[in-house]
Specification:
Distance between the termini: 68 Å
CATH topology of one domain: Serine Threonine Protein Phosphatase 5, Tetratricopeptide repeat
CATH architecture of one domain: Alpha Horseshoe
Radius of gyration: 20 Å
Number of strands: 2
Oligomer: single chain
Length: 246
C-alpha cells in the first residue's frame, strides 16, 4: 500500500493536465480509490474548484483534507475561508486553532496572526485586528525591519486609518510603499488618510499615481490575485469615485 501511495505522490499523474480538466479529477479519483484517507489528494481535488469559483465543492473536498491531516491543512482552509469565501468568522476559528499548534508557521507567505487580523478587520473588530496585525509585524521585526512583508505594513496601516490613528496609518502605509514603489492599494489608502488631515492636493497626486499603477498592471503581488480580490483591494472605479468628488 505504501508503494502505491508513493507512486501517486511522486509521479503526480494529474499534473500532466490542466487543473480545470476532467483528467485532473479523474486521476485524483483513481488515487483516492486506493488511498481514500490521503489528505493531500483531497486538497488537490479542492484547489481547482476554488480557483474556478466553485466554493461549495472546493470546501467539501478541503474538509476531507482537514479531516485526515488537520495539522497540514487547517491553516490552508482558514486562508481559503478568509480570502476566497469571505467567511471571516469561521476563518478566525480555523486560524486560531492552527496558530496554537504551529505558532511560527505561515500560510501563503504570511503568518497566521496576519490572516486572523485581516479577518477581524473585515468584521469591523478593529482592536482585535490591530492586535493580530501588530503581532504579525512585531514578530517579523525581531528578524529586522526588512523581514516585514510590505502587505503586513499595508493592512496594519489600513487598520490604523480605520481607527482614525492617522499618524501611525501614514507611517505604516509609507513603510509598505518604501518596499513596493508601485503599490496602488497603499497609495489609495494613504490618499484617504491625507484627505482626513486636509492635504487634498497631495491626496490627488497619490490617487492619480495609484490609478496609473493599476492600469500598468501593478497589484499586491499575492499568489492568488489571479483568482480572487484580496480584502480591501481597490480598482480604478474606487479611485475615480474619489477623484470626482475632489
Amino acid at each position: 500500500m505504501k508503494a502505491k501511495k508513493e507512486k501517486y505522490i511522486t509521479q503526480k499523474h494529474w499534473h500532466k493536465f490542466s487543473y480545470n480538466s476532467s483528467e485532473w479529477q479523474m486521476y485524483l479519483d483513481s488515487a483516492l480509490a486506493i488511498e481514500p484517507k490521503y489528505a493531500y489528494l483531497w486538497q488537490q481535488k479542492s484547489m481547482p474548484n476554488f480557483k474556478s469559483g466553485k466554493y461549495y465543492d472546493g470546501m467539501k473536498f478541503l474538509n476531507k483534507a482537514v479531516e485526515y491531516d488537520t495539522l497540514a491543512w487547517l491553516g490552508y482552509r482558514g486562508f481559503m475561508k478568509c480570502v476566497f469565501m469571505k467567511d471571516y468568522a469561521n476563518a478566525i476559528t480555523d486560524l486560531k486553532a492552527i496558530y496554537k499548534k504551529r505558532p511560527i508557521d505561515q500560510i501563503m507567505d504570511h503568518s497566521f496572526p496576519f490572516w486572523i487580523g485581516i479577518s477581524y478587520l473585515k468584521l469591523g473588530k478593529l482592536d482585535s485586528a490591530d492586535y493580530y496585525l501588530g503581532l504579525s509585524v512585531n514578530n517579523s521585526l525581531l528578524k529586522g525591519k526588512e523581514a516585514v512583508h510590505y502587505v503586513d505594513w499595508f493592512y496594519w496601516g489600513l487598520t490604523k486609518y480605520k481607527q482614525k490613528k492617522y499618524k501611525e496609518a501614514l507611517s505604516y502605509l509609507e513603510n509598505a510603499m518604501a518596499q513596493n514603489s508601485h503599490f496602488p492599494d497603499a497609495e489609495y489608502y494613504k490618499a484617504m488618510v491625507l484627505l482626513q488631515i486636509n492635504q487634498k492636493e497631495a491626496a490627488k497626486v497619490l490617487l492619480v499615481q495609484a490609478k496609473t499603477n493599476i492600469e500598468a498592471g501593478y497589484r499586491m503581488n499575492e499568489d492568488n490575485e489571479s483568482y480572487v480580490n484580496y480584502p480591501y483591494q481597490i480598482t480604478t472605479f474606487e479611485i475615480d469615485e474619489v477623484l470626482a468628488k475632489l
